[in-house]
Design brief:
The chain has 126 residues and is an all-alpha fold. The protein has one domain. Helix 1 packs antiparallel against helix 6 and helix 5 packs antiparallel against helix 6. The longest helix is centred in the N-terminal third of the chain and has 29 residues. The radius of gyration is 17 Å and the shape is elongated. It starts with a helix and ends in a 12-residue tail after the last helix.
């Protein structure tokens, strides 16, 4: 798979996740289950890497996976404790699972294309 294909799929998946979770958390706030402020705070970590993801920075894709783990815990918890939101939680978990695979692969492939990575120490430096 090429880096352009992974970039497109990752970006579309990320935007779908932002829309899905934005609708969910804002809906929770409007329904009165939580305050609207608390619901909007759930979206802040998800929006932190948006600039780098839209621009295709490999480093952003690498660390954004850690943020996705928070939302994966949310999805798995919902799957376990509720039957009302089972379909939502399943879609959320599957989408995040796909992104947790696509993000590191894109970061690795694109990083190699750009010549990024850790430099190995030579025998003189050791």
């Amino acid at each position: 798979m090429t880096s352009n294909t992974l970039f497109t799929l990752s970006r579309l998946g990320y935007l779908a996740l932002v829309l899905l979770l934005g609708g969910w958390f804002i809906g929770q706030g409007l329904n009165g289950e939580y305050t609207l402020l608390f619901s909007l705070l759930w979206l802040v970590p998800l929006l932190l890497p948006i600039k780098g993801i839209l621009k295709g920075h490999p480093y952003t894709y690498a660390w954004a996976s850690f943020i996705l783990c928070l939302y994966m815990l949310h999805a798995l918890t919902l799957l376990y404790v509720t039957t009302d939101a089972f379909a939502f939680a399943l879609i959320e978990a599957l989408l995040i699972g796909a992104l947790l695979v696509a993000f590191p692969f894109y970061a690795r492939i694109r990083g190699r294309e750009l010549g990024l990575g850790l430099k190995k120490k030579s025998a003189k430096e050791v």
